[in-house]
Structure formats: C-alpha cells, structure tokens
C-alpha cells in the first residue's frame, strides 16, 4: 500500500521533470513586454524636430510623488524649441522617487512625455538618478522635412 | 630574473590575478538575506521562482540569518521603527557585505514622504545599488544584481580596503 502511494507521488514528480522549462534566460533573452508597459520616460519631438513639451507643468502637478520639475521659458523666433509660446527650459525627473504610474503621460496635453519599456535603470549612486532634459529628450530625427509651400484651398480662390 | 616577490606584489601582478579570482568567487555566490519589508518582497520572491530563476546568478540561497548572508535586499518601505533593526542586522552580517535598495521606497521614500518612513535606506546603511520602480519587476532586480556583480568584480579588497 505504502509503495503504491510512493510510486504515484514519484510519478507526479517525474511528469513535471519532462515539462517544458519556463525560465527566461534574462540578459540574453528578454520576456515580451506589453505595449503599454511603463518604465523610463522619454520626451518626444514633433516630426519637424521641435519639442512637443510646451512647459505647462501639468505633469509635475499630476505627479503623486512630486518627482518632476519643470521650469518654462518663452520661445522666440530666433531661439525656437517648441511650436507653442513656451518650452521647458529645465525638465528634470527624479527617477529614484518616480513610481512609474503614468499620470504624467495621461496629463500631458501634447503627448510629449511618454513612458517606454527600458527598465534597466539600476545604478550605484543616488546622483545618477536625476534625469535631466538632455537625457530624456528624444534625439532629433535624422531627416527633417523641409517646409512645403501650401496650396490655397479651392474654396479660397473664389 | 632578479625580480623579487615583493616587487611583483608591489606592481600588483600577483595580487591582481588573485583578486580577480577572489572577486569572481564572491560575485558568483551572493547569498541574500530574507528581508522583505513590503510589496517589493513579492517581486523578490518572483525573482527566485523558476520564471526568472536568480539561481543562474548564484543568488538563490536566501538565508534566514544575517550571519550567513552577503547581501541584504531592502525590499519595501523602511519605517522609522524598522530602521534600528535593519542597522543591527546589517552590523551582524560578516564582511564582505553589500546592500541593494529595491524600489522607490527603500531608495528614497517613494510615495511615502511622511514622518513614519525613512527617506531612503542609505540614511541607515550604506547602499551599493539602487533599483528604481514601484515595485521593480524581477528582471529589473536581476539587472540590479548584475550591476552589483560588476561592482564586486571591480573591488580590490587585497590591495585596497573595501570601501
């Protein structure tokens, strides 16, 4: 009686032994992340290379841990950063305090700040977690389309 | 060849190789302590489970006592009441020892910016690696562990004292 139970139990162990392994060999092999995974922030640009961020500080206001600091400045025609009146002169995120809730992404009226999939953020010193604007900002697109002459609409011709 | 052993040691030829092997041994068997303080501990358990399997890095042997552990993963918010306990546990760990602050709360207080929570475990113990996230996913913690391994490999305990 005892032996039958023992073999039955060992049979279950043996069955699991031949199952497919589910380990993800992490550094070489990544697990698929969902499209809306929220990790490291990125400040996006428009197609013409201008920054999307208009320095409205809504992200800083919606942040539950107050880890975003935005200082806005006026755009001029000579020094233009964003299409609006103002742009973010200083944009800083304390990545250590951030809880990656995505409220900044929801609050942003221009879709400037987005959370992407880069989760490898561990560092060895606190000072390395202050992400400034040049770290967050997307690089300029390689090919910036030149401004095209716009045809007047047919109805405007009279 | 009239080069003496002292000169070789002085130039670091022998010590460097010995230290490399020594630190390789240390980084390949980091035994963490069971020290889960809050929800990050769930992800820490997930890190040990077969899907992420931290045994591939030699860090699966969670010890119940600080006297057998090399690494303390502060997984969760550190309350003011828990701070002296953490300090005592840290002091009981034998050298060499490392600290990994896991998550926003352990690293800097996170959402809990109030009177009850220590604003960063580095106010109590020296932290080697900070892992941001709330909570960091198991692969993010494994990345932190890999950073710690890099840091351990770069340490030179024989030629200079451990910082």
Assembly context of the chains: heterodimer
Question: How many discrete structural domains of chain B?
Answer: 1
Query: Helical percent range of chain A?
Result: 10-25%
Task: Report the strand count of chain A.
Answer: 5
Structural class based on helices, strands and sheet pairing of chain B: alpha/beta
What is the helix tally of chain B? 6
The gross shape of chain B turns out to be: globular
In the CATH scheme, what's the topology name of the domain at 32-139 in chain A?
Alpha-Beta Plaits
Low-confidence runs of chain B? none
Uncertain segments of chain A of ≥5 residues (pLDDT<50)?
none
For the biggest sheet of chain B, the summary is: 4 strands, parallel
Gyration radius of chain B, rounded: 18 Å
Largest sheet of chain A: 3 strands, antiparallel
Report the sheet-strand fraction of chain B.
5-15%
The most extensive contact between chains is:
A-B, 30 and 32 residues
The CATH architecture assignment of chain B turns out to be 3-Layer(aba) Sandwich
Radius of gyration of chain A: 25 Å
- Quote the beta fraction of chain A: 15-25%
Helix % of chain B is: 25-40%
Question: Nutshell version of this structure?
Answer:
The complex is a heterodimer of chains A (158) and B (163). Chain A is of the alpha+beta class and 158 residues long. Chain A has 4 helices and 5 strands, in the order αβαββαββα.
């Amino acid at each position: 009686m005892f032996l039958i139970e023992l073999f039955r139990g060992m049979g279950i162990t043996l069955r699991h032994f031949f199952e497919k392994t589910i380990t993800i060999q992490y550094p070489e092999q990544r697990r698929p992340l969902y499209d809306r995974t929220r990790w490291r922030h990125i400040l996006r640009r428009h197609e013409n290379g201008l920054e999307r961020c208009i320095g409205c500080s809504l992200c800083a206001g919606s942040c539950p841990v107050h880890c975003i600091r935005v200082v806005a400045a006026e755009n001029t025609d000579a020094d233009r950063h964003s299409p609006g009146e103002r742009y973010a002169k200083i944009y800083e995120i304390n990545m250590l305090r951030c809880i990656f809730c995505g409220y900044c992404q929801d609050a942003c009226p221009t879709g400037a700040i987005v959370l992407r999939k880069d989760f490898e953020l561990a560092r060895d010193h606190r000072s390395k977690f202050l992400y400034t604007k040049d770290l967050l900002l997307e690089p300029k697109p390689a090919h910036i389309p030149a401004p095209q002459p716009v045809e007047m609409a047919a109805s405007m011709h009279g | 060849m009239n080069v003496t052993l002292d000169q070789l040691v002085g130039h670091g030829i022998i010590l460097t190789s010995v230290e490399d092997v020594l630190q390789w041994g240390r980084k390949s068997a980091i035994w963490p302590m069971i020290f889960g303080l809050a929800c990050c501990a769930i992800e820490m358990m997930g890190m040990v489970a077969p899907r992420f399997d931290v045994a591939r890095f030699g860090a699966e042997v969670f010890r119940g006592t600080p006297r057998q552990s090399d690494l303390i993963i502060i997984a969760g918010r550190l309350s003011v009441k828990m701070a002296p306990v953490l300090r005592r546990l840290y002091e009981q760990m034998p050298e060499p020892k490392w600290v990994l602050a896991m998550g926003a709360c352990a690293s800097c207080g996170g959402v809990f910016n109030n009177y009850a929570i220590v604003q960063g475990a580095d106010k109590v113990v020296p932290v080697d690696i900070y892992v941001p996230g709330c909570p960091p996913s198991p692969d993010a913690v494994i990345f932190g562990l890999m950073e710690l391994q890099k840091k351990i490999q770069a340490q030179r305990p024989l030629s200079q004292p451990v910082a």
